[in-house]
Amino acid sequence: MSDRLKKLLIFFGISLVCLGGYFFYVTSSDPLLEDALSDTNELMIASEKIYADLDKLSQLEIDTSIFEDTRFTSLKDTRVGVKQIPSGRSNPFSSLE
């Protein structure tokens, strides 16, 4: 084979591989892109649901007269405070000596 024919075959071979790779790249579906699109759709559905629930909540009317009732105002706070105690060492990486 002549040198020119070898170079021509190599050129066509490389061109064929490049075209095949390009065709494979263009026609293949990207799973990351599909996952991102499905996540976006799920987020849109969830946000629409949240807005619908928020709209329902904004239509509620709450009777606040219960907070002025003497039974409510006579309630006492019976919480017990929690003592703060030091835990662990100031420097956990220092030696045990």
Tell me what you see in this structure.
- This protein is an all-alpha fold.
- It has one domain (3-73).
- The chain has three helices and no strands.
- It has helices at 3-27, 31-58, 70-73.
- It is elongated and about 105 Å long.
Index terms:
mainly alpha; elongated
How does the SSE layout of this entry go?
Blueprint: H1 3-27, H2 31-58, H3 70-73
Give the fraction of residues assigned to helices: 55-70%
Number of domains: 1
Q: Output the helix-strand order.
A: HHH
Which structural class should the secondary elements be placed in?
Answer: mainly alpha
- Rg, rounded, reads 36 Å
Main sheet summary: none
Give the overall form. Answer: elongated
Number of DSSP helical runs = 3
Q: What fraction strand?
A: under 5%
The residue-averaged pLDDT reads 84
Task: List low-pLDDT spans.
Answer: none
Quaternary organization: single chain
- Distance, first to last CA: 83 Å
Q: What is the strand tally?
A: 0
Condensed summary:
It is built from three helices and no strands. The protein is an all-alpha fold and about 100 residues long.
